[in-house]
Structure to design on (134 residues):
């Protein structure tokens, strides 16, 4: 039976050897590892950038203490609801999404979706992820 032809994942050169072989040389392996590292790094940088942007928006809208704004204001300013650095769940009515030291809790007032923005209090940030599994 003819063995399946293998090609290097980096340079696409046909190669021989073990069936699980991925690269023709140490250089091609190193090139691939560097590429993967760069992609991971890009993702981290993009997430950090979004976190900073979210924080800046919250800080702008909440210069002191706390404030309430419409959801649409956050959206207009480019807030990314999928990105946050920590959660705070002081009671069953409020779940806060934090971006570093600023956070908001989604609320509804007279049918209007709003965000209650606060700065981080000195609480012990203990979080229990398994509590939400049903
Ligand atoms: Zn190669």
């Amino acid at each position: 039976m003819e063995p399946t032809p293998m090609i290097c994942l980096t340079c696409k050169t046909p190669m021989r050897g073990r069936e699980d072989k991925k690269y023709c040389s140490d250089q091609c392996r190193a090139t691939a590892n560097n590429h993967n590292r760069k992609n991971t790094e890009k993702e981290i940088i993009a997430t950090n950038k979004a976190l900073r942007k979210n924080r800046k928006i919250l800080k702008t809208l909440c210069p002191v203490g706390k404030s309430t704004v419409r959801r649409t204001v956050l959206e207009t300013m480019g807030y990314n609801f999928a990105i946050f650095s920590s959660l705070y769940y002081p009671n069953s009515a409020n779940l806060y999404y934090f971006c570093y030291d600023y956070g908001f809790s989604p609320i509804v007032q007279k049918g209007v979706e709003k965000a209650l923005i606060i700065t981080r209090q000195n609480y012990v940030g203990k979080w229990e992820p398994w509590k939400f599994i049903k």
Q: What stands out?
A: The mean pLDDT is 91. The beta strands are 6-7, 14-15, 66-70, 86-91, 94-99, 102-109, 112-119.
